[in-house]
Every structure is written in C-alpha cells, then in structure tokens.
Write the structure tokens for this entry.
Amino acid sequence: KDGQSSAWNTCDYSHNVTFYYNWVGKTISVVWTTRDFVVIGLGLMVCLIVILANLLVMVAIFMNQRFHFPIYYLLGNMAAADLFAGLAYVNLMLNTGPWTSMLTKKQWYIRGALIDISLTASVANLLAVAVERHQTIITIQLHSTMTKRRVMLLIVGTWAVSIIMGLVPSTIWNCECDLDDCSTVAPLYSRRFLIFWAVLNLLTFCIMVAVYTRIFIYVRYQIRYTSRHTSEMRNSQTVVKLMKTISMVLGAFVICWTPGLVILLLDGLLGKASHANTYEKFCLVIAECNSMINPIIYTLRDDEMRRTFKWILCCLCRRSSHGVCVVEGRGVACTFVQLSKL
C-alpha cells in the first residue's frame, strides 16, 4: 500500500485531462444534451450583456470629464475586470461539456486561470476603492487628492497581482504530483490551494466590509456633529450617496461570490465527501451574473452616469444620420448636430 501511495505521489505529466476527471469521479459529458445547449446559450447571452454593459461604463468614464477623478478611474478599472470576466466566461462556455475531454492540460489551465484572474482583479479593485475612499472620507471630501500616477500604480498593481494569482495553479500549486490532493470541482487543482484561495478571499471580504462600515460610521458622525454650512452639508450628502453606491457594489459582489468560495473551501477540506459538484454550476451562474450587476447599480444610483449612458446610446443610434454628438461643458448632453451634405 505504501509503495502504491508513493507511486501516486511521483510526478507523471503524461496524464491527460480526462484522467484527472476520472480519478476524482467527475463525469465529462460524451454527448450533447438539451441541458448543455441551454446552459451554453444562456451563458453566452449573459456574457454578451456583461461585455457590452461594462464597455459602456468604461466609455462613459472616459468621455465625461466629471468622472475624471481617482474614484471613477478605479470604478472604471473594476468595469474592466468585469469585462475581462465576461470574456473569461465566454472561453469557459466554449470549452465545457463534451468539449472538455478535448482540452489539453495547458488549455484547461488557461480556462481556469482566466476565471481566477477575473476574481482576483475584482477583489483587488474593491480593496483599492476602499483605500481611496478611506483616505478621502477622513476630510469629508468627495474626491481624493491622490495623483493620477498613484492611481495608475494601483491599477497596474491590481492586474499584476491578479495575473500572478491566476498562474499559481498551473505553475507551482496543482495536484499533478499528488493525486490524492486533487479537487473534485477543478480536478487538476490542489485541494490545499483551494483552501488557501477561498480563505484568502473570504477574509478579504470581511476586511472590506469592516472598512466600509467604519467609513459609514465616521461619515454619519461628521454630518451630525460638525459644521452646518449648507455647502459642506451638501458635499457630505454627496459623499454618503457615493458611498452607498460603492457599498451596493461590494454587497452584490460578496453575495454573488461567497457561495462559490464556500463550495471551494468545502471541496478543499472534505474532497469527495463535500459533494461540491452538485452545486458547482449553480454557484458559477451566480458569480457570472455579478459582472452585469454593477452597470445596473450605476444606472439606478448615479444620475450623471445615467445621463452619460443615454448620451452614448443616443450617439450610437444616430450615427446612420451622419451627425455628430456634442460634449457640453465638463459633462455630456444628448445634443445632436446634423452635418450638412456635401
């Protein structure tokens, strides 16, 4: 028995993806079913909405000078992370079901890495927003004095960390040299990595909730017990409104991703006994939907963002009329100028 165990713990890189699925008892579909077509069809439709909606947010922040502040640059980067998530899920949809057995290990790792990168980028962006808001709220300002250089360093840093974390399972922390450590949800991943990954993200969620709670308490205190000048009170109310919007983004993210992370944690701790595969796809769908929630929140909560969305859509709809859209002042307005025909 010891000899057999040591044999399994030697590195054999000749095994294909199907071998690992069979090893953990995870079934790969061999024929297409109606369920497969429905899942992939709906999944691709959601991905298209995610990509277009977050692209709209990024364009809005770029076009409207009223959004040219650190907090909106970070929210734009969050939209970029959600757009990346949409692309990652497109890749997942096109490499699932019976297609899974045709994947090489490199392709399978890339499929997982894209999802990992998108999650890490979203978490890192929320942390960056928390840092920016905490720095700003101390003085009850709407926008921080953080320089563009620091914002760019934050953005580059979030993506650098995300890419590194996405590459960890394929490079140094998988189960190819220890088959007993293979996950049931992601058969080539190490269960120990899943425990580390899930605990790290869940702890990060708790830290962010604590930071935002502290900011809210501080803002409420300042509004109640400090200056009663109308301009400062109005500025404070704007700060609160923006904080509520960001908190809704954080809340939606935590609600959508926590079930999946709990499943990964249970899989890492219990293995096959966790029956994680039963809930895997359900949790994946919830996580995918999170990427299209943020644009909806911005539309409902931010009047200027809503006006900018309308302006962009107005311009797109009227391009066939050979006109130009006009930017008015620091903001935008849906003003359309008809070009005279030559």
About this structure: Residues 131 and 230 are 28 Å apart (CA to CA). Residues 1-8 have pLDDT under 50 and may be disordered. The first helix runs from residue 2 to 8.
